[in-house]
Amino acid sequence: MPNSNTKHFKALIREKLSDKKLRNIVKKATSHSISKRIETINNYIPEWEQLRDRANFIRSKTMQNWEFYFEQLLKKFRENGIEFFYANNSSDACSIVKTLLFSFGVKKVVKSKSMVTEEIGLNEYLERNGFEVTETDLGEYIIQLANEKPSHITAPALHKSRQEIGELFSEKFNIDYTDAPEKLTEFARLILRQKFLNADAGISGANFLVAETGTIIIVENEGNARLSITLPKLHIVITSIEKIVPTLSDALMLLKLLPVSSTGQKITSYVSFIKKPLQSIGSENSQKIVVIILDNGRSKLLKNDKSRSILYCIKCGACMNNCPIYQSVGGHAYGSVYPGPIGSILTPWINTLNESKDLAYGSTLCGACSQVCPVKIDIHNQLLGIRKLSIENKYSPLIERVIFKLWLLSMKNFKLFTLLSKFLNFLSPLFQESGLKIPFWSKYKYFPAPAEISFHSWWQKEVKIKERINNV
Amino acid sequence: MSKKILIEKFKSELIKVNGDCFVFKNLSEALKELKSIIAKEKIKNIAISTKTDIAKSIFDELKKDSSVTIESVEELNKTNSILKDNLKNIDLGISCADFLVAETGSVILKSSTDEPRLLSLLPESHIVISTSEQIIERLEDAVDFLSIENWVTVITGPSRTADIEKVLVTGVHGPKKLYVFINDIEIS
Fold first, then answer.
1. Is residue B26 very low, low, confident or very high in pLDDT (cuts 50, 70, 90)?
2. Which of A62, A293, A383, A413 has the fewest beta carbons closer than 10 A?
3. What is the pLDDT of residue A442?
């Protein structure tokens, strides 16, 4: 995965934790989303928990029978005149896009938000190949101008303050500094409107692909996705295998959960339902729609009973908003395309486990993520699952493995257990009350002082005294 | 639920998401409100879809108004010109609803050559003409329509973003203003 750098998670965590300004911005933004979500559920949706059960059922039946629904979807795409590609990995997906753009003589591309294109590193790839690519979602546009990566899956510029954005705009466009969100938004509107009108191709993601009808559903607030898929004559949809939904009713059901979980909105400003390419009007050429579905390691999950639920995700971002770790370090600390709890369990499957195993340890296992997940993914269990996998693969440090081997042996052998605990009791005077600081183990944690006498010897002594009293 | 309750629910939901709703009994009421919006938003150029009779009447009446220029999509289609060029300088787009959703204050619009998607997208203001008979309780009630039609957009309020410090700003890429006109057929 070209766009991921999860190897330095520990170092990045340290760096981000010391950035107080960042912590304040992230905390403020996530708290805002959390309270909006709760407000809407409390005021409007008494049946929220039942909806979650239903959503979990829909997602689990779809992923268990994925091939069936996939075939159905392809048949509908063919009937509806929508071209289709299956991309095994990032480089396949990128080269399919490049070939398409070349064959259509495209020079300028507008893009609406799509995390899958971040995953495959599409922007950098297309720019290297000479295309002009413009992100049009306001948050994504800000990130593109700043030459950064999104730090949240639904709010990409969450980590940036209005002052930073104001300075960025004034520097890039040589305009007077303003940090008023209305003015900055209006300015971006004017610039991006010209980009839309002159674009040769539009690239978007998709929220749902309906197997029963072949409908592509795109959920958004700004209108940039609608412009991207309407103005250019070529529309490329880049999405991943888990976006399939059996029926339109199922999709509408999931749509009740997605915006609420994400921003607290009952529905977003725009939801587009697209079945066919747009008809031509007057002298215009007709539109072409191409759908690219990315696998990138996900099909391994389809076959995995224990971890399949990772694919239920509908990318709402509620788990990261509610995660105490995410709130403290922000999305960039993870170094992965998908940050937060869902990113920590998905990334090891689309990246290598060895490189991204540390992410699963960046969690308190409090389970807040699982509680807010609209499709009821057992995220905290999956986090433990990744830890288990990394231990099974011997990715944990040697010293840790040796210690646990010894512990296991002693738990199985009473004599060894007694010997080791006696040894620890013997060491007890060396410890201070707060415990012992062990080098290379932790800067912040202390190894607790062992008791002077083991429970076993204490018990034997107590019982013996009692027996003596009873005998008197 | 009665139509009256549904209209009230629709109205209150739409206002919550920064849209506006106007219920009218006859053409003259609609025109009066329309003209006050035109004055308030300083609208000069209008494009309208004349799919329904009421929209046709509005088109005919506004044509007599010399302070604005108005074109129908039907006429524009006949000129064989590029649609986006025709619509990019339009201040107000007027379209005809297929359904109104009370639960969320949403408008359901299908796209067609008579009423292209760009009409509800490029202009800064968007007005939707509808009747009280088009109102449904929930989005699920339109599932058959959604499965038959090829291009449908569900619109709920004006275009919006909160990408800068979660501050809500309306009118990013789509219309900055959305007005829904409902012809209450029972009263008229």
1. very high
2. A413
3. 67
ipTM of the complex: 0.97
Q: What CATH number is attached to the domain comprising A154?
A: 3.40.50.10420
Could you tell me which of B122, B99, B101 has the C-alpha nearest to residue B109? B99
Residues in B closer than 8 angstroms to A142, CB to CB, are 163-164
B94 forms beta bridges with: B48, B127
The answer, yes or no, to whether residue B120 has pLDDT greater than 70, is yes
Residues A295 and A437 in one domain: no
Q: Give the number of other CB atoms < 10 A from CB of residue B169.
A: 22
Q: What are the angstrom distances between the C-alpha of A74 and each of A156, A210, B102, B109, B137?
A: 32, 10, 34, 26, 33
Taking the mean position of all CA atoms in its chain, how far away is CA A399?
Answer: 32
Residue A333 in any domain: the answer is: no
In a domain, A284, yes or no: yes
In a domain, A343, yes or no: no
Q: Which residues contact A408 (CB under 8 A, 6 or more apart)?
A: none
| Domain assignment of residue B99, given as a range | 3-183
Q: Which domain holds residue A257?
A: 43-302
Q: What is the pLDDT of residue A253?
A: 97
**Lowest mean pLDDT across A12-21, A441-450, B31-40, B101-110:** A441-450
Tokens representing residue A181 in the block: 């969100």
Q: Do A281 and B77 touch (CB under 8 A)?
A: yes
Pairwise CB contact (< 8 Å): A222 & B88:
no
- Out of B150, B157, B164, whose CB is closest to A162? B164
Q: Return d(Cα A41, Cα A51) in angstroms, integer.
A: 11
Residue B113's closest chain A neighbor by CA? A281
> Can you give the pLDDT at residue A286?
83
Q: Does residue A439 lie within any of the structural domains?
A: yes
Put simply, the answer to whether A136 touches B173 (Cβ < 8 Å) is yes
- Tokens standing for residue A287: 């539109």
Tokens of A297: 């390691």
The whole-number mean pLDDT for each consecutive block of 10 residues of chain A, a chain of 472 residues, reads 68 91 95 97 97 98 98 98 97 98 97 96 97 97 96 95 96 96 96 97 98 98 96 96 98 98 97 93 82 97 96 98 96 95 96 92 95 98 96 89 89 89 82 73 75 83 82 72
Tens-digit pLDDT profile for residues B128-181: 999 999 999 999 999 999 999 999 999 999 999 999 999 999 999 999 999 999
Question: Which residue, of A237, A270, A302, is where some domain finishes?
Answer: A302
Q: CB B172 to CB A157 under 8 A?
A: no
Confidence (pLDDT) at B127: 98
Among candidates B81, B117, B163 on the partner chain, residue whose Cβ is nearest the Cβ of A226: B117
Do A297 and A434 share a domain, yes or no?
no
Q: How many domains does chain B have?
A: 1
Asked if the structure places residue B188 within a domain, the reply is no
Q: Which of A250, A281, A287 should be substituted to probe chain B, the one whose Cβ sees the most B Cβ atoms within 10 Å?
A: A281
Structural domain count of chain A: 2
Whole-number pLDDT of residue A440: 67
Which residues, 6+ apart, have CB-to-CB distance to A217 below 8 Å? Answer: A206, A207, A208, A209, A210, A251, A255, A271, A272, A273, A274
- B150 vs A65: CA distance, rounded Å: 27
Cα separation of B25 and B19, whole Å?
A: 20
**Dihedral, CA of residue A319, residue A320, residue A324 and residue A326, to nearest 10:** 160
| Angle, helices A20-44/A9-17, rounded to nearest 10 degrees | 90
- Of the three residues A258, A286, A302, the one that is the final residue of a domain is A302
